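Most newcomers find our protein records easier to grasp once they have seen one. Read left to right, the backbone structure tokens trace the chain's path through space. Once this layout is familiar, the rest of the handout is easier to follow. The record below serves as our worked example for the rest of this section:


***
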Amino acid sequence: MKRLLLFTFIGIVACTTDSELLSHSQSQPKNQVMLDKTTQKRSASLYKCKDDKIIRVVRITESSKNTKKVKTDEINLTFEGVTEKLNATLYQTGKFYTSIHWQWLETTENNSLRSSVGNILAEQCIEQ
């Protein structure tokens, strides 16, 4: 008889504790998260280079709905199965993108990919 009362008491305490915790967690307001209103678009280009080498360039264009500014200062470049994110840097006669491993130069005449130490990986690349 004492065991029955003990188990009943434990069951009642356990059930009320769970429901109190549940109602307490539901009553707390959740923190509102500010959403980033920046949209991101991507466009891919395929380049065929000398010696039948293929380079794929994905341009990432971000535009903010608040400021209406569009920035395209990075690309994802894939060469021989390796993808690397390259950032735009200033250059005199074209667009120049660099990372710790690669340098991608886009000019009106010729596009080329070099290693960070200057070795030519692909040259005479033409957009398909």
Observations:
- The chain has a mean pLDDT of 79.
- The domain at 38-127 is CATH 2.40.128.200 (Lipocalin).
- The chain has one helix and nine strands.
